[in-house]
Structures are given as C-alpha cells and as structure tokens.
Design brief:
- The complex is a heterodimer.
- In chain A, a hairpin with a 4-residue loop joins strand 3 (180-189) and strand 4 (194-201).
- Helices cover 40% and strands 21% of the residues of chain A.
- Chain A is an alpha+beta fold.
- In chain A, helix 2 packs across helix 3 (33-42).
- Chain B folds into two domains: 16-105, Rna Polymerase Sigma Factor, Chain: A; 107-191, Arc Repressor Mutant, subunit A.
- Chain B has helices at residues 21-47, 50-66, 77-101, 119-133, 137-148, 153-160, 164-190.
- The longest helix of chain B is centred in the N-terminal third of the chain and has 27 residues, at 21-47.
- The radius of gyration of chain B is 18 Å and the shape is globular.
- Chain B starts with 20 loop residues before the first helix and ends with a helix.
- Classes of the chains: A alpha+beta, B mainly alpha.
- The interface between A and B is large, with 68 and 80 residues.
Chain lengths: 253, 191
C-alpha cells in the first residue's frame, strides 16, 4: 500500500492530485481509518466552515420544534437498586423501573441490565461539549478522587489516572448500581471525544476476567475484572485505541 | 434488527432490545434534545430552507420516537437520528418542497448567523455560509456532516448511504468551490 506523507495529503486536499491518484487515495482511506483521520486533520476548510455554522441555528430558530411528550411512567418508591446522577439517568431509571412493574403482554422477561450496559447508556449521552464544559481543576479532581477512594475503599492514584495517552482526566463522579458504588472518571480526548473509565465494586468471590472488547450503546469499550472490581474504559469508535489504553490501565490499577 | 453502522468490528451480544421500551424512549428523547441543533443543521443542508428544516426536524423527532424500539447497541444515536432525517427528506418532504418552489435553488439566508459577532468576522462567516449553501444539495449535506458536525468520512457515508469514495469526491468538489475563501482568509491573516 502507498505510504502517504502529509505533503501528499495536502496536495490531495488542494485538488492537485490527478484522477487516478485521487481514486487510489480514496480507496486507501476507505481501508485505513488512521489515514482517514490524518487526512481529516489536515483539511483547512473544516474549521473555517465549522466556525461559520457554529451559531446556526440560534435558539429562537428552533423554538417551534417540540419533542413529543413521553407517556407518564409510575415508579415505585421502594425501588432503590439503581441510582445514577442527573436528569438523563433519572429518565433511564424511570424507564427501567416502568418495565419491571408492568412488562408488556407477551414479550419475554428482559435480561437484566448489567452495570456495564447501564454505564454505557449513560455515557452514550455524553457529547464533546459535556466534557469540554468541565473546567480543568486538578485540586477539584483530587478531592473527587479522594471521595471515590473512600467509596471503593481502595487507592485511585491520580498520577497514573491522569497520565493516559491523549486523554485528559476531567472529573470523578460517584454513581451507584444496585446499591454498589460505580465510579465514573470522565476524560476528554484531544479531539474532544468524551471517554470514561468506570470502576464498579462488584464484590468478592468472582473470578478475574481478561480485557474484553465490545461495542455498547454504540461506543467502543474494553472491560476487565480483577478482585472485587470490574473496570470498563468506554468512548468513541476506535476499538484499538480503547483496547490499548485499557492495557495500560490493567498494569497501573 | 436494523444495523446502520455495519463497519463496526465488534457487535455486542446484549442489545437495547433487552432494555425496556420506556428506557429506549427516554434514551432517544435525550439524544434528540442533545442533538437538536446538529439535526437541524443537517436538515437545513438538505432542504436549503429554514422553515423546511424545522418541519424536517419535527418529523424526525416523531419518527425517531416511533422507532425507538428499533435501536440496537451498535447504533450511535446521533448518526441514527441523522439517517432518519435524511430518509424523511428523501421520501416525504423533498418532492413536496420541489413542487412548492419548482426547484431546490434558493436564496441562502445569512440572517441566521449570530449578529453579535464583530463586523469583519460576521462578514467572512456570512460569505462562507452563503457559499456553502449555494453548493449542490449532495455536496452541501456532505460538507455539513463532515466539516460542521465532525463525522468521519465513513460515518458520513453510512448516514448518506453512499460509498466513502463518494463522500470524498463530494468534499473534493466542494473544496474546489470554496477554495477561494481559504485564500481570502489567508490573505486577510497576512495583512
């Protein structure tokens, strides 16, 4: 396969490749996501056009659009197994609870949602703006990690967790799944993509599991378990990146 | 079960069908809320008209909620919503819009831009906006997905249901028409 230099890619972007060379590059990009990302990163028009449309539409332009209201769901007060922070999670929980109370007629009982899928559903609602809005504050992260350490009763070394390739640690949140702490460490990749490392206190007496890659809620994940804890790194659509970073975390945690 | 992003290497066994329909409804509802402006931009790029974009986004909201039970674990919900938007445009609204206007040519409305920006910035943004909106529909939609919404070429190809090479060709054609804007920006920066 042809090795394309940045100069080659800029020549293509400038429209100076002949037709055959352009077709060869387009075929190569189709087979190589890394080449695709390099080419996209060099395209000067993207930022210019993106900025021109940044303020479009204004809130007033879309004020007339309404998302149809949800049908009301009654949740029982005694249900306390699942607790996530935020409106989004509350809506998800309401949905899950609604199903538990009154499953629709002939549909088989659904399989229980595990902590990983539930965390992935939550993470799927993150957009670059979610993590971009979190101010860089190392002291705040230290305090959040200290709370998370107390919840898990284990160390979470900030140095190691802040030293992941291309990922900036933005925040540590304490969530819970079925009454057990579920820590979400929110990261922003350099291109803005939100990522999270989730650590779940699954309890004792369960076998360790190696790193397993899968897509959950449309996001790449790598999960593994060791001792009392289950781990999941999640974010983006680059499976290889997630698996590579998970490999580093396995060594550090 | 519908699979829209078939280029994924791994597909998990568990899927959203294991989640209650109420959860999926809430998930889609939240995805609509978070992506409303992005869907609107895409709808605007397809229709070239803000009023039609509003209709298209409204229809997308209704259709997405009707189909929330079809969501699977390998869906990226934002891309799924874009696909619904495009489908409604092609199947329901495009012909209607052509009948109304006799063509899809239109006068781009730069008044949609934020008037708070300084004059020079606004002038340049207005020029870029106008030139993008004057592109043919297919190029315009591709530019919007890749340059504005930040989708990778292959993701845009999935949404538009075309080969990745077609996405790249459309972008190349658009670049040719927008290149002078880049030169203008470089000249202004050098002054």
């Amino acid at each position: 396969m042809t090795r394309y230099t940045d100069e080659d890619l800029l020549t293509y972007l400038n429209g100076d490749f002949d037709e055959d060379a352009a077709q060869s590059l387009e075929q190569a990009v189709g087979e190589d996501p890394e080449l695709e990302q390099r080419l996209m990163g060099l395209d000067p028009l993207a930022a210019m056009v993106g900025q021109a449309f940044e303020s479009v539409p204004r809130d007033a332009d879309i004020a007339a659009i309404s998302i149809p209201a949800a049908e009301p769901v009654v949740a029982p007060a005694r249900f306390g197994g699942l607790r996530l922070v935020g409106t989004v999670a509350a809506m998800l929980v309401a949905g899950v609870v609604g199903y538990v109370i009154s499953p629709p007629g002939p549909t088989p009982e659904p399989a229980p949602i595990g902590w990983k899928l539930q965390a992935a559903l939550y993470q799927a609602l993150y957009v670059p703006e979610t993590v971009a809005a979190i101010p860089a504050d190392s002291a705040a992260v230290s305090a959040q990690l200290a709370s998370a350490e107390a919840a898990l009763n284990r160390a979470l070394p900030q140095d190691s967790l802040s030293d992941l390739p291309d990922l900036e640690l933005k925040r540590a949140q304490i969530l819970a799944f079925k009454g057990k702490p579920l820590i979400q460490l929110a990261y922003a990749k350099s291109d803005g993509t939100p990522f999270a490392l989730c650590i779940f206190l699954r309890g004792e007496g369960k076998p360790d599991g190696p790193v397993n890659s899968e897509v959950l809620a449309g996001l790449s994940t790598a999960s593994w378990s060791q001792g009392e804890f289950g781990y999941m790194l999640i974010g983006g659509q680059d499976d290889a990146f997630v698996t590579d970073v998970a490999g580093l975390l396995v060594e550090q945690l | 079960m519908v699979t829209l992003l078939s280029n994924r290497k791994h597909v998990v066994a568990a899927n959203y069908s294991m989640v209650s329909s109420n959860s999926l409804d809430a998930l889609v509802r939240e995805a609509l809320t978070q992506n409303l402006k992005g869907i609107w931009r895409f709808a605007f790029s397809l229709s070239g008209n803000p009023e039609t974009a509003n209709d298209l986004v409204q229809a997308t909201c209704v259709r997405a909620l009707e189909r929330s039970h079809q969501v699977t674990s390998d869906h990226r919900l934002d891309a799924w919503l874009m696909t619904i938007c495009r489908s409604i445009w092609l199947n329901d609204l495009r012909a209607q819009r052509i009948r109304q206007t006799q063509s899809l040519s239109h006068a781009p409305d730069a008044a949609l831009l934020d008037p708070r920006a300084d004059t020079e910035t606004n002038f340049f943004a207005s020029e870029v906006f106008t030139k993008v909106m004057q592109l043919p529909e297919a190029q315009r939609a591709t530019v919007m997905l890749v340059f504005v919404q930040g989708y990778a070429y292959r993701e845009a190809a999935d949404i538009l249901d075309v080969p990745i090479g077609t996405v790249m060709s459309r972008l190349s054609a658009a670049r040719g028409k927008l290149k002078h804007l880049m030169n203008d920006a470089n000249t202004a920066a050098g002054e």
